[in-house]
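Teaching note: in complex prediction, the entire set of molecules is handled at once rather than each chain in isolation. The prompt given to students was simply: 'Predict the structure of this complex.' The entities are:
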Amino acid sequence: MSVKKIGVYICECGGNISDFVDTERLRIEIAKEKDVDSSMVNMFTCSDAGQQKVIEDIKEKHLDGIVVASCSPKLHLGTFRAMAKRAGLNEYQYTQVNLREQCSWAHTHDMQKATKKGLRLIRAGIAKTLNSKPLKKLRVKTLPHVLVIGAGMAGMRAALSLSDIGISVHVIEKEPEVGGMTKRWGKMFPRNKNGYELVEKLETELKKRDNIELLTNAELVEKDGHIGDFSVKIQVKKDHFFSLKVGCIIVSTGFETYTPTKGEFGYGLPGIVTLPEFEELLAQTDDGSKMISYNKKQIKSICYIYCVGSRQNKMMGESAHQYCSRYCCSATVNTSNQVHEIDQTINQFHLYRDIRTYGKYELLYTKSLEEGSLYFRYDEEYPPSVSFENNTCTVVVKDSLTGNQNIKMNCDLVVLVTGMIPRTNKQLANVLKIPIGQDGFFNEIHPKLRPVETVVDGVFIAGSCQGPKNLSESVASSMAAVAKSAALLLKGYVNLEPLVAEVDPNLCEWCGECLKACPYNAIQITEIENKKIAEVVPILCKGGGVCVPACPSQAISVKGYTNTQISSMIESLAKNVDIIDEETNEEKKTS
Amino acid sequence: MITTNTDSQKNEKIVTINCQFLNQMKLGSEFNATACINCGTCTAICPMEINLLPRQLFRYVLIGAEEKVLENVNNIYSCLLCRMCEENCPAGVHIAENVRSLRTYINREVYGLSRS
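The expected output is the structure of the full assembly:
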């Protein structure tokens, strides 16, 4: 059923459009167009009142297709689709014309020409609606089963929560043991629980659950299928493979710690360790011993150098870690407070660029000052120097808190506060195809509004594989991924856009060009009446349209953007718009 | 001796931290200036216009730069203990008390005097 009676609604956008485009003039011209049964100008079409007016008009005039000439569809496509649906129309027989970003805002200097362009754009919109067909959203069944990749704290916590909800889970871990980085850590803020205790607690709980299967030494090697119904292939140890069907995937592969290059702040010299190395040393130190030893020597003074491998200058090249690793300030201050607790007499010097113990971690910083930790601030341009002589490390820092004077301190141990860097796993990145952000971590769709979803539908990211996070933030993000997964899977189905490619079996001669062009493997070969033709798998198709120009016999097109629609739009765009000139000239003559 | 990143410190004077002094001031005296926020009120208000402003001096004591403290013995004894600075210190540092503790230390360590 193609559209016969069209309504065109032109939005002023409260002056954003009408200040630079003559909207009333457009309405008059559009009203003259064939098939346009109603035309109207609204101040704010997206407002409740504006939408109501349009809905009443559609019902009153029994329209079967509409065009709204307003802002970018990025802003209000959903709004007006829903409005069309409420008015009893098929939401895909609505066309949004971008009269703001692509017309009024771009041509603020010439109203007449902008109005002409507006006329062309709206005519094209009318042509698109005229040739539109009603479409229905694709509905896909979802399997209530999740694959969690990575059994660190975020992964294990996600698995347990999904299990609580009643969704069965497979957890795969590349390493022989679960617990990731956390199991190496000592006491953590604020409850002073040891890292390995937390890991143990979760691991024990995980193993009790009937609906969680934990596999160590296991890696994802293949992923097929689509949201709601993925087929994954998992490799266990070197030679075991098995396949699995899951509704969605949570990626919680964690981070790696920065390893300083040899000689960076003296790394490689005796007595110079990284923060994780020092934390391991501390975790092994007996609380009752009242002293800390390194290489069998009692430690009397410690110097921490912050921001090693973080907030690097972009002049260092592409591999520079320009971001703040966020967790290290709090972690270091917490660690140094524990040192104070074990041996009050140890002198501790903190050489920092900026202290970022945000939120409640300020308590740690205040405590550290009270305990007698000394803080020295250095500038990025003047990094501290570290040397080793006579069995002691000597650090010199240009301290901006002491009038930029060079301060020298002798220490038994220098701790380089290293940050988190992205984990490199090319195989996994290839299989999952999650985009990587500027800092090298997995990228979410939107940092605020869609923080755990990726552009790959049904694949969520949780924890520090997304960027530096402390443990509470990591678990919070894994809980968000659980909520998104559960919402998807418990509903039982998911609706997808029907704007996918389709093949005309009469025209298709099967040459395979579309298959070669498609990046999503959404084309397969089929046979109808002894004739080989291409077939589109709608669920895999993203409606990208690269197959359309590849087809030599024009047998393939994308729904909602059919060849008829596009060529009629081009014709409409090219139509004469001089009528607007004529009117203006007449006005000039009369005046 | 192996050294890294030395460029920034070339030809510049270096102040050395003396951990013994640090511990003595931290554990064995009443001195406490951790609350100092470096605002400079004490400097502005000092009637003696003492060269070494209380905040600089306290920073030296805090980080254990004994050589700097000893360089400024005269300044430390120039203080009137009038408590103008202390009255106006927004961080509530007991400035006069701190100067007294320092004098006790200097009397003992430099002049060999002792209370007992």
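Point out the following to students. The interface with chain A takes residues 1-6, 8-9, 12-17, 19, 22-23, 26-27, 34, 38, 56, 59-60, 62-65 of chain B (CB under 8 Å). Residues 42-109 of chain B form one domain.
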